[in-house]
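FAQ: What does a multi-protein file look like?

Like this. Sequence, then tokens, then the next protein.
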Amino acid sequence: MTGMRSIVIIAIPVFLLGFGLGGVSLHVASAQEMFGLKDSVTQIGSSLIQMQKDVDELQKNMNTIKQAKNQLSTLASPGSGVGGVMDSLMNKSKK
């Protein structure tokens, strides 16, 4: 009889604790759905990933533009005229 009583004394608080924690977790889950927290966080995460991809593409484009600028500046000569390769071609035709 005392063994059964000790099991009941332990089982009731454990049940109440589990019941209480289960109720709290249900309220938290319903609050997340009600306020749309889960959807909002998912949308923010997707937006951040897309923004990072866009920034990476812009950096690639900037590097391409810098390379083109450098190549054009090496073709241009400091003197007058069209510059660089074009000047040398025009000078050859005059000779």
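And here is the next protein:
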Amino acid sequence: MADVDMPMGTSHDLLHFTEGALVYAGLHLHETGHPLHTHSFVEIAIVRGGTGTHHCLAGRRELSVGDVVLLRPGVWHGYEDCQWLELYNCCFSSELLHRELAWTREDPMLGYLLWSAPYSAPGRGVLALHLEQSALERCAAHLEALTELRFCSLDRFRGDVLGLLSLVLSELGRAAASSAGSGGGPDGQAGGAQAARLHPAVRRAMRLLESDIARPWTLSALAEELHLAPAYLVRLFKDATGLPPKAYLAQLRAERAAVLLLHSDDPVTSIGRAVGWPDQNYFARRFKAHYGLSATTYRRRFATWAAEHPPGSSDPHPHPRPLAETARLPARRRRPRALVAGRCVAAQAGHGRAVP
């Protein structure tokens, strides 16, 4: 399958959704591993076969059938020691999350899955969970149906795409809620906040912070907006997200800064100001605390937009690199037919290939 079939553009070890794209789903195979990379969309990886190790700032985690990794935009990760690791990938933009999927914040399970759990320490923008066999089979059916819609007109099938994505997210939400209720995820993450309905004040606080992250928020100012005592707000917010409001805001700012570093040639100092961290030294400390890399190193390693597209360039997306070599598996290890999913091109040579 050619890159033109994929609704994502590539910039070396960065993937991003192109204009008009909505959701992407498909199956990808890693025979031995895949180098560290990042992306500016929400990614869900579901293990269908084989084994491997997932590596991100939160640590390394061995993967087996039924394991799921959900990653927020900007998170870097990779796969190591893979033995024919087959992953269903489902990817969608953060714009879709804030528009068509904004209602998920009101849902106890999906609000936990998409909005609060990935930010809960020590997730660092990553949520790991596990699907039982029956749930895995249902997710696979929904993802295969999404794959079939890839070439259909969104004008006619937008509802189908969003409906199938919602079914996948519902399966994952139930698994995440069960993991939270048991006090921990399969990778040892603390259960933290339970997948219960968010207090209205917490929902409003999250929206206020997200809508104006550059504002010099103080706990007193936020509490005043909500007509609550600061200590009470902290307790409500921590119960819901596992983090106090200011820590949640720091996660939002780091994520937004990562996207700007990947997609703009703005100076690092300007990006710091744009996300509410005008002090360069403080921005550097906060960004590194979230991603384990300085903003400059993160941009140099994971983005080439500034070098390839100087100011005034008419093309907002870099030209994609060729797909990884596609080849037929040996007969004794042949897998069912599938399509390449959200492949991330890394600075090193990729080792993944499409399942034929």
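Q: Is there any per-entry metadata?
A: Some entries carry free-text notes. For the entry above: The domain at 3-192+320-353 is CATH 2.60.120.280 (Jelly Rolls).
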